[in-house]
Every structure is written in C-alpha cells, then in structure tokens.
Amino acid sequence: MSSTATLENKNLENNLQWSLLLLRVGVFIVMFFWTLDKFVNPGHSIRIFEHFYNISGFSEMIAYVLGALQLVLVMAFLFGIKKRITYGLIFLMHAGSTFSAYAQYFDAFNNLLFFAAWPMLAACAALYLLRDADTKFTLGK
C-alpha cells in the first residue's frame, strides 16, 4: 500500500473516531438531561409515562429509581462501556420515545421540536452500528 493511501486511511479513521465521539457526546447530553428531569421534576416524568406510554400509577419514588438506573446507563454509554448493551439500550430507549410520540407528527407545525428526535435516532443507530470503531475516549474495547 502506498504511503498516500496509508495516510488517507489514517485520516479517515481519525475523522471517524472524532465524528463518533461527537455523536456520542451529543446523544449523551440529551439523555443526561432527560435523566436529570426524573430527579428535578419527577411529576413531569410521571406525566410523560402516562401521556406517551399509557403507563399510570408511577410514584415519585419510581421516577427516582428509573432516573438512577438511567443515570448508570447514560454514564456507561458516555464512556463506551459494554457498547453492544449500552448503545443498544440507548437506541431502543430513544426509538421508543420517538415512536411513542407518533400523534405529534400528524400535527407537524404545532410540534416541530418533536422532529428533532429523528436525527437523534439516526445518530443512535449510527453509533450502534459503528460501535467497534467508536474508540476515542472510551473505557470499553
């Protein structure tokens, strides 16, 4: 292989690693604030579960427990620990959130912010599919 091709491969690999890191940090920021919301405003989380998931009967304690579990998950995701599991769970959680809001998409111009879920879902899918290449600042393999 020529030195030019080797250099191009190294540049591509470096650019890919930085791009995946940026995607991971971006997804983490959103998921982290959704997690914090369970602690700061558990009533909001309870209403979200009732409205979008048709799950009622949650108490503040359940919101706190879910928040604690989600905090462990999003921190493991941020640091690239057990990527198949953590990236997969983040993707599934966000997919559930995105699809559960389906009614919002029918009234698009009154719910434009809900459409931000789609590029984030694409980022979650890309991170899952490219998890083995996502090595910049990770603690996992």
Report on this model:
This protein is an all-alpha fold and 141 residues long. The protein has one domain. Helix content is 74%, strand content 0%. Helix 1 crosses helix 2, helix 1 runs antiparallel to helix 3 and helix 2 crosses helix 3. The chain is elongated and about 65 Å long. It starts with a helix and ends in a 12-residue tail after the last helix. The model has no long low-confidence stretch (mean pLDDT 95).
List keywords for this structure.
141 residues; mainly alpha
> What oligomeric state is this?
single chain
- What's the pLDDT, averaged over the residues? 95
Major sheet summary line: none
N- to C-terminal distance: 27 Å
Number of domains: 1
Radius of gyration: 18 Å
Work out the helicity level.
over 70%
Shape: elongated
Number of helical segments?
Answer: 6
Q: Order of helices and strands, N to C?
A: HHHHHH
- For the secondary structure, the number of strands is 0
Return residue spans where pLDDT drops below 50 for at least 5 consecutive residues.
none
Strand content: under 5%
